[in-house]
């Protein structure tokens, strides 16, 4: 799972408090990096679609990169490449994704999140 | 929504059992899906819900698509191909509201076994699509032009796979349908709800969440492109 995908994931267990279900907290994380083709145009269009605060927080918490808390007015190449590296080239190989609302744990194994719920949670 | 026995036994379990063979037969993109994906704006974010072996995930390199499927065996294949993928259920998607520019659902909704479940699946697809974003849905048609003809809308469709490749001797054949002695195939039954003309459009309209832009018939399927309102 790349960090761009984490940016969209939320807990969907029945009865989970919607104000607490996003983002999912990553614990016991093993990261890996991969090469993704860089496209300035793509990254520029992508940024407004991300939850910026969550990306900044996640990148910092995982020790991947320090991104500016506020989106800079001038987005130069160094900045865009950093976002590219964080969102598209950083992959979570193993982790537990924990919901801060209901405590549900979603495992990530071999890079694949399993987001299925138990029968009594849907 | 609670799980449904028919879907568990005749959809989820079957796709896990046939994953390798299924994937080996699914490589050619359907033209309508192919052009929908190629015409997307650069930098679009999307979800392929029920992505199977991920054959649509690499069609347009200028968009980012997350694949998901209920079958972990199919998702294993998708992951090995280097695509972004996860295991989840269409009836309860793990994405925040309105986060995608587009969502595709190719040959998925017809595996849901009641009108309520099919409606709920479509509502989930639209929930995760942003206002103005589009969904593309394909389902099997009752009105088949090919050799298959059906008498009813709710049917079992056999999946046959060669025994000697996919089920070497000694392997269990749990869930398979008994075949005649000496048969070279192992057979599983998949549940389908075959859509009649107009049924998909009506169901999408009933969500109250989208307007239909195009709909049509292609290769034994009904399809629809709808815009989230």
Automatic annotation (TrEMBL), chain A:
<dbReference type="GO" id="GO:0160102">
    <property type="term" value="F:tRNA (guanine(10)-N2)-methyltransferase activity"/>
</dbReference>
<dbReference type="GO" id="GO:0070476">
    <property type="term" value="P:rRNA (guanine-N7)-methylation"/>
</dbReference>
<dbReference type="Pfam" id="PF03966">
    <property type="entry name" value="Trm112p"/>
</dbReference>
<dbReference type="GO" id="GO:0046982">
    <property type="term" value="F:protein heterodimerization activity"/>
</dbReference>
<protein>
    <recommendedName>
        <fullName>Multifunctional methyltransferase subunit TRM112</fullName>
    </recommendedName>
</protein>
<dbReference type="GO" id="GO:0030488">
    <property type="term" value="P:tRNA methylation"/>
</dbReference>
<dbReference type="InterPro" id="IPR039127">
    <property type="entry name" value="Trm112"/>
</dbReference>
<dbReference type="GO" id="GO:0002098">
    <property type="term" value="P:tRNA wobble uridine modification"/>
</dbReference>
<dbReference type="GO" id="GO:0016435">
    <property type="term" value="F:rRNA (guanine) methyltransferase activity"/>
</dbReference>
<dbReference type="GO" id="GO:0043528">
    <property type="term" value="C:tRNA (m2G10) methyltransferase complex"/>
</dbReference>
<dbReference type="GO" id="GO:0000470">
    <property type="term" value="P:maturation of LSU-rRNA"/>
</dbReference>
<dbReference type="InterPro" id="IPR005651">
    <property type="entry name" value="Trm112-like"/>
</dbReference>
<dbReference type="GO" id="GO:0008276">
    <property type="term" value="F:protein methyltransferase activity"/>
</dbReference>
<comment type="similarity">
    <text>Belongs to the TRM112 family.</text>
</comment>
<dbReference type="GO" id="GO:0030490">
    <property type="term" value="P:maturation of SSU-rRNA"/>
</dbReference>
<dbReference type="GO" id="GO:0035657">
    <property type="term" value="C:eRF1 methyltransferase complex"/>
</dbReference>
TrEMBL record, chain B:
<dbReference type="GO" id="GO:0000049">
    <property type="term" value="F:tRNA binding"/>
</dbReference>
<dbReference type="InterPro" id="IPR013216">
    <property type="entry name" value="Methyltransf_11"/>
</dbReference>
<dbReference type="GO" id="GO:0006448">
    <property type="term" value="P:regulation of translational elongation"/>
</dbReference>
<keyword id="KW-0489">Methyltransferase</keyword>
<dbReference type="InterPro" id="IPR029063">
    <property type="entry name" value="SAM-dependent_MTases_sf"/>
</dbReference>
<dbReference type="GO" id="GO:0002098">
    <property type="term" value="P:tRNA wobble uridine modification"/>
</dbReference>
<dbReference type="GO" id="GO:0106335">
    <property type="term" value="F:tRNA (5-carboxymethyluridine(34)-5-O)-methyltransferase activity"/>
</dbReference>
<dbReference type="GO" id="GO:0008757">
    <property type="term" value="F:S-adenosylmethionine-dependent methyltransferase activity"/>
</dbReference>
<feature type="domain" description="Methyltransferase type 11">
    <location>
        <begin position="48"/>
        <end position="136"/>
    </location>
</feature>
<dbReference type="GO" id="GO:0005634">
    <property type="term" value="C:nucleus"/>
</dbReference>
<dbReference type="InterPro" id="IPR051422">
    <property type="entry name" value="AlkB_tRNA_MeTrf/Diox"/>
</dbReference>
<dbReference type="GO" id="GO:0043527">
    <property type="term" value="C:tRNA methyltransferase complex"/>
</dbReference>
<dbReference type="GO" id="GO:0030488">
    <property type="term" value="P:tRNA methylation"/>
</dbReference>
<keyword id="KW-0808">Transferase</keyword>
<dbReference type="Pfam" id="PF08241">
    <property type="entry name" value="Methyltransf_11"/>
</dbReference>
<dbReference type="GO" id="GO:0005737">
    <property type="term" value="C:cytoplasm"/>
</dbReference>
<protein>
    <recommendedName>
        <fullName>Methyltransferase type 11 domain-containing protein</fullName>
    </recommendedName>
</protein>
């Amino acid at each position: 799972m790349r960090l761009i995908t984490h940016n969209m994931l939320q807990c969907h267990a029945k009865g989970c408090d919607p104000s607490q279900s996003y983002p999912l907290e990553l614990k016991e994380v093993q990261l890996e990096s991969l090469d993704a083709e860089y496209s300035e145009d793509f990254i520029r269009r992508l940024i407004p679609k991300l939850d910026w605060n969550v990306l900044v927080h996640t990148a910092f918490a995982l020790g991947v990169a320090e991104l500016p808390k506020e989106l800079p007015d001038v987005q130069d190449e160094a900045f865009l490449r950093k976002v590219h590296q964080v969102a598209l080239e950083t992959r979570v190989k193993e982790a537990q994704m924990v919901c801060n609302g209901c405590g549900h744990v979603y495992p990530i194994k071999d890079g694949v999140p399993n987001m299925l719920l138990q029968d009594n949670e849907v | 929504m609670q799980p449904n026995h028919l879907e568990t036994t005749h959809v989820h379990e079957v796709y896990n059992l046939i994953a390798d063979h299924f994937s080996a037969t699914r490589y050619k993109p359907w033209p309508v899906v192919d052009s929908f994906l190629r015409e997307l704006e650069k930098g679009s974010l999307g979800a392929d819900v029920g992505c199977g072996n991920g054959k649509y995930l690499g069609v347009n390199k200028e968009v980012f698509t997350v694949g998901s499927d209920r079958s972990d065996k199919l998702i294993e294949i998708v992951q090995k191909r280097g695509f972004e993928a996860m295991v989840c259920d269409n009836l309860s998607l793990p994405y925040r509201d309105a986060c995608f520019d587009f969502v595709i659902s190719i040959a998925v909704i017809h595996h849901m076994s009641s009108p309520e479940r099919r409606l709920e699946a479509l509502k989930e697809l639209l929930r995760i699509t942003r206002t103005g974003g589009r969904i593309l849905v394909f389902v099997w048609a009752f009105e088949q032009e090919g050799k298959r003809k059906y008498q009813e809308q709710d049917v079992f469709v056999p999946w046959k796979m060669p025994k000697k490749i996919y089920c070497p001797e000694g392997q269990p054949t749990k869930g398979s349908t008994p075949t005649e002695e000496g048969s070279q195939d192992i057979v599983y039954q998949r549940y389908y709800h075959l859509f009649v003309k107009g049924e998909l459009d009506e169901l999408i309209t009933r969500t109250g969440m989208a307007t239909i832009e195009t709909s049509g018939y292609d290769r034994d399927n009904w399809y629809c492109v709808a815009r989230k309102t």
